[in-house]
């Protein structure tokens, strides 16, 4: 039986309109967009994204393997299957080989904690529709009934929270080849059977069961938010769900929503604004520049090295964003050593320079390029951090923008001794640098106390 749009709205109103104490959000964007972003999100700055699913078994090309093979019929994917698998082999035949036999959630959580990340976002379900938990709406196409035969979402969540990190879940609204979704699509999204029977019950179950601190919505772009009933779901999430006071959401809730509606803004993948945005945002970036999921055919030249990652992190934070860095584990449940090396390198840099990142705010000037390219962050009312992302190769560094005073003190993070400096004519200063310590990240931070 098909559910009409009015019946769907009534169902969701029963969820979102129950009486509770406190402010209420109504199921419209004007009300939902007025919700203040929970403070924890802006303070943490750096998180880890994890793309893991059945696509990790072929581990070829990208996590969009199924679509490129059967939807777009890309020649390299078709040839890969013809060469390596027998005729009649289907994508669902990959699922039993998603063993995850080496998956140790505590080991993953240790690596993520060592990276300096403060939140972790796992794919609960990608566009292939396979859920990494025992979804009651996804019989036999989930990690409990098939493949690993374990609750991957729950197991990782327990390990992450033991380390006091925030736990978020990625969820794809649409599924490439789900016949119910395709029927709604064929009807021009005037029917909502997939939303009523699959998308919303599954997402609500995910929230009630795992209580995520963050929902990273995706797969929304083919249909409007009215098809997904996004505003009704978000009203329930913000008013009555078990995470109503802490949960953070992104902006992918229907065609035309991103960079416009929702909690913080992702905008397009790898969004890189040219100036300070007027809304909280996040840059998601993958260590493997060509894929979010694990690829057996990746090359070292296609991976971000540590200096590039740190520059990207610093740029993002200086412009008021959060940085969500992705790694794709193997189907066996292993985080490749090359990814682990990058993550531990970030953590080593943050141990020294983290106070210039965590809980900071954009300064009145975000960057300058006088002696060397410098990015600024700030804290309190009189502390500014100048992050140098390349060795200036000289003993003096000119900073043209800080307004100094007689009480200004300049230090190099990691070195407790104050540095000598002299003011410029009306604004700015020149700092005498010590010999800069070795930094695999090739980035150093000057802390300026007592500046306007």
UniProtKB/TrEMBL annotation:
InterPro entries: FUC_metazoa-typ, Fucosidase_C, GH, Glyco_hydro_29, Glyco_hydro_29_CS, Glyco_hydro_29_N, Glyco_hydro_b
Entry's Gene Ontology molecular function annotations: alpha-L-fucosidase activity
Subcellular location per the Swiss-Prot or TrEMBL entry: Lysosome
Cellular component terms (Gene Ontology): lysosome
Domain spans labelled Glycoside hydrolase family 29 N-terminal: 16-355
Family of the protein in this entry: Belongs to the glycosyl hydrolase 29 family.
Listed name of the protein: Alpha-L-fucosidase
Organism listed in the record: Culter alburnus
Lineage of origin: Eukaryota, Metazoa, Chordata, Craniata, Vertebrata
């Amino acid at each position: 039986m098909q559910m009409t749009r009015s019946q769907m709205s009534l169902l969701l109103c029963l969820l979102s309109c129950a009486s509770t104490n406190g402010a209420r959000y109504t199921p419209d964007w004007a009300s939902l967009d007025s919700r203040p972003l929970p403070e924890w999100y802006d303070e943490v700055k750096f998180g880890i994204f994890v793309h893991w699913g059945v696509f990790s078994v072929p581990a070829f090309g990208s996590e969009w393997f199924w679509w490129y093979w059967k939807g777009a019929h890309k020649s390299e994917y078709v040839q890969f299957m013809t060469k390596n698998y027998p005729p009649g082999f289907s994508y669902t035949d990959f699922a039993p080989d998603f063993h995850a036999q080496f998956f140790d959630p505590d080991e993953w959580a240790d690596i993520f904690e060592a990276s300096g990340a403060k939140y972790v976002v796992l794919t609960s379900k990608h566009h292939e529709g396979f859920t990494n938990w025992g979804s009651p709406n996804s019989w036999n196409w989930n990690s409990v009934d098939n493949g690993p035969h374990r609750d991957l979402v729950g197991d990782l969540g327990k390990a992450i929270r033991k380390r006091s990190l925030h736990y978020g879940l990625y969820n794809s609204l649409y599924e490439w080849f789900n016949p119910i979704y395709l029927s709604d699509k064929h009807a021009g999204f005037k029917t909502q059977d997939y939303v009523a029977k699959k998308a919303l019950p599954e997402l609500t179950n995910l929230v009630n069961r795992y209580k995520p601190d963050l929902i990273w919505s995706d797969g929304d772009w083919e249909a409007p938010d009215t098809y997904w009933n996004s505003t009704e779901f978000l009203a329930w999430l913000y008013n009555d769900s078990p995470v109503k006071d802490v949960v953070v959401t992104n902006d992918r809730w229907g065609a035309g929503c991103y960079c416009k509606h929702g909690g913080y803004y992702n905008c397009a993948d790898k969004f890189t604004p040219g100036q300070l945005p007027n809304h909280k945002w996040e840059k998601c970036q993958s260590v493997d520049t060509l894929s979010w999921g694990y690829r057996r055919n990746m090359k070292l030249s296609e991976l971000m090295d540590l200096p590039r990652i740190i520059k990207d992190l610093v740029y993002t934070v200086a412009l008021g964003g959060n940085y969500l860095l992705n790694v794709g584990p193997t189907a066996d449940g292993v985080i490749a050593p090359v990814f682990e090396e990058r993550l531990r390198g970030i953590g080593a840099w943050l141990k020294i320079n983290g106070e210039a990142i965590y809980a900071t705010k954009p300064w009145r000037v975000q960057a300058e390029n006088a002696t060397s390219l410098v990015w600024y962050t700030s804290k309190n009312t009189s502390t500014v951090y100048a992050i140098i992302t390349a060795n200036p190769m000289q003993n003096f560094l000119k900073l043209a923008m800080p307004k100094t005073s007689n009480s200004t003190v300049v230090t190099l993070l990691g070195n407790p001794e104050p540095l000598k400096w002299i003011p410029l004519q009306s604004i700015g200063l020149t700092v005498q640098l010590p010999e800069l310590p070795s930094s695999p990240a090739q980035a150093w931070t000057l802390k300026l106390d007592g500046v306007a």
